[in-house]
Structures are given as C-alpha cells and as structure tokens.
Amino acid sequence: MFSFGIRSSKFLVSSVVHKRLLASTARSTQSFHIPVIDFTQFREATALSDRKRIADKIVSAFKESGFIYLSGHGIPSATIQATFAKSAEFFRMPDENKAELAWEDPRSNRGYVKIGRERVTQSADPDEIAALRAKAPDFKETMEIGRDWDAEWNNRWPRETDVPHFKQTMLNFYQICHSLHVEVMRSIALGLEIEESFFDAKINEQCHNLRLLSYPPIKRTLLEGEGQARAGSHSDSDYGTLTLLFQDLVGGLEVQNPHTGDFIPATPIPGTIVINVGDLLARWSNDVLRSTLHRVVAPTAEKLHETETITPVRQSIAFFCNPNFDTKIACLPNCGKVAKYPPVNTGDYIVGRLAVTYT
Question: Which of 67, 153, 241, 298 has the smallest CB count inside 10 Å?
Fold first, then answer.
C-alpha cells in the first residue's frame, strides 16, 4: 500500500492520481493469488460433472499463477509428520556418514547433496552457474531418492542402524505421492478437455524424485551478499510435470507475480500441499499452464547480539513428478494450433538440466 504526506505541499499527490495508483496496485494484487482448492470432491466424486468442476478450478489456477494449495488431498497428517521426523533424523547424522551417500551422477539423481553443491538458477550455462555457485551458493542440503526398483540406478540408503526405518518410511511416502500425482494429472486432463486418463500411461513408470531438504541456521550477514538466498530464484529446477511441496511452519517460499515481478510469500497453510507446474508440463501445454519463478528466502531471524541475527532451521519435502523417461513431450491437444517448442525426450531433458545444476 502507498503512503503519502498530504499535509505538506512538497509531497502532495492529487486524489485522482492517488486513486489511480491504489486501483493499479489492487488490480496487480488481485490478478495474482494462490488459491486453496479442496480436492476431496474430485477424489470422492462419482459424477464426471463433479470432478470436472474441481478440474476446471485447478487448470484455471495453473493458467494464472502456476501454483495452488491443495487441501483434501487424502494424505494423513500423521504420515507427513512421520516423514518429516525421519528426514530430520537423517540430516542430524554426522557429516562423514552423509558424505558416504554423496550424489554422483545426473542420470541417477540419487544421494546426499551437501550445502553449496547445487546452485538453482534460470541459467543453463555451466560457466555462469559455476560463477553463481562460487559467489552465492544455495544454503541448503538435500537427500535425493528415486524409484527403488530401477534396473540401472540404486538409491543410496543410510545404514538401518544410523536411521532406523528411514528406507521404508521414504518408500511408502514415494508411493503415496505418486498416487496423488496420478489423480492431479487426471484433473488437469479433464480441465484441458482431453481424455481423463490421457497421462496415465505416460507417468506410470514413476520416474520421480523425492527430495528431502534441510536449511540449517545461518547468520543473516552471510545471506546479504549479491544474489544470495537460501535457494535461488528458479522455475527450471522443477523440471517435470508437477512439484508437490510439503512445508513446515517456518516458511520462506516466495512466488513471483508475473505481472509485476514482485515476489509474494506462499505462507504455509496447515493441512495443504503446495503444488506447482513444472517446466515440462508448461512445455507440454504450449505454455497454457504456467511454470512460475519462485525462490526460498530466509525467514525472520533471531537476534544473537547487537549486530548479528541467525535464521531458524527450516525443513521441507518436495516430490518432483516426472513423465516416463521415454515420453516424448509435444504440444497437447487443445493447447494451441502452433507449437512453440519442438518435441523433446523427457529423460534427455531432465538429465541435461541436472548435469549443469550440480558440481
């Protein structure tokens, strides 16, 4: 909101100009918001018309902002809390134990990623990313988990004695998230007025990535350098169809209003999952569905002394949903007569993006 000094002629603004400014601000704010959508009616509906009503809301939101809060998703809060607890237990392991599980290959995309190794950015240029990483590394550590039955690549699990039940907890959560992905993709198909099962055979191989994230405490002065944030502004780290984001209550996720360039906090709402469109789904839909720039910034810091503060620990869990790696991504029906992009192979696209993101 704008504030004007109306008692001083030096700062006097006419009421007409004032009203126009306020109206302009209101329009830009109202044109961008992240809606809360109750998915219960889609999951439990028996009539196609009922499912279509929710599907239309989801697709409309993905066209406008690229983000939704999904409530009524069917994942018990106890399951989510247990997964968060095991994630925190993993990151409390000694550094040398985590280092044994280090991420090694973009074709695998599995294992532990230490602080500063990943640099999330819009750039696809390796040299530019390396320079950004040196100047402003992302202050987070992650654990990357893929489908466990893969014939070529293995997950990198901690010893059971180090984190009891970690493997089974994450495998169960992986399956739950995949099932939700299938349902949301069915809603997108309905909302785009194509066959509801259109995506089923294109996502059934579960080529997804479950990412556990930990943002350790950090002194505020270390976050004040040029280009620095807890995780860089990006849309193309979300390479696939959708991202399911489970947040703690600390917050920090911000989404860019594409109309103004301003970043808007995606404040955690208990009981909801934040879901956003990934780059391949945007490309698949010929940009009818929006892949929106977003970032993670440091939350309010706690005071250490007169000149220094420190941020609290933050946790999140992201489930990056992908098409099957052999799927060809080409313009969907009902998404324009002229394709903006040439067809691309899912596996080639994702591996190529990962290869320049990590050292």
Answer: 153
Note whether 279 and 239 are within 8 A (CB).
Answer: yes
User: Rg for the chain (alpha carbons), in Å?
Assistant: 22
**Total count of domains within the chain:** 1
Is the residue at 286 inside a domain? yes
Q: Which residues pair with 275 in a beta bridge?
A: 68, 244
Say yes or no to pLDDT of 19 above 60: no
Query: DSSP state, 307?
Result: T
pTM of the model: 0.83
pLDDT bin (cut points 50, 70, 90) of residue 8 is very low
Q: Is 170 helix (H, G, I), strand (E, B) or coil?
A: helix
**Which DSSP category does 136 fall into?**
S
- Considering only CA atoms, which of 315, 265, 243, 252 is closest in space to residue 88? 315
The whole-number pLDDT of residue 30 equals: 55
Strand arrangement, sheet containing 209-215: 36-38, 67-71, 273-277, 242-247, 314-321, 209-215, 141-145, 111-113
For the segment 66-84, what is each residue's pLDDT rounded down to a tens digit? 999 999 999 999 999 999 9
Q: Are 66 and 292 in contact (CB under 8 A)?
A: yes
Evaluate whether residue 173 is within a structural domain. Answer: yes
Q: Which DSSP string corresponds to 187-218? A: HHHHHTTS-TTTTHHHHTT---EEEEEEE---
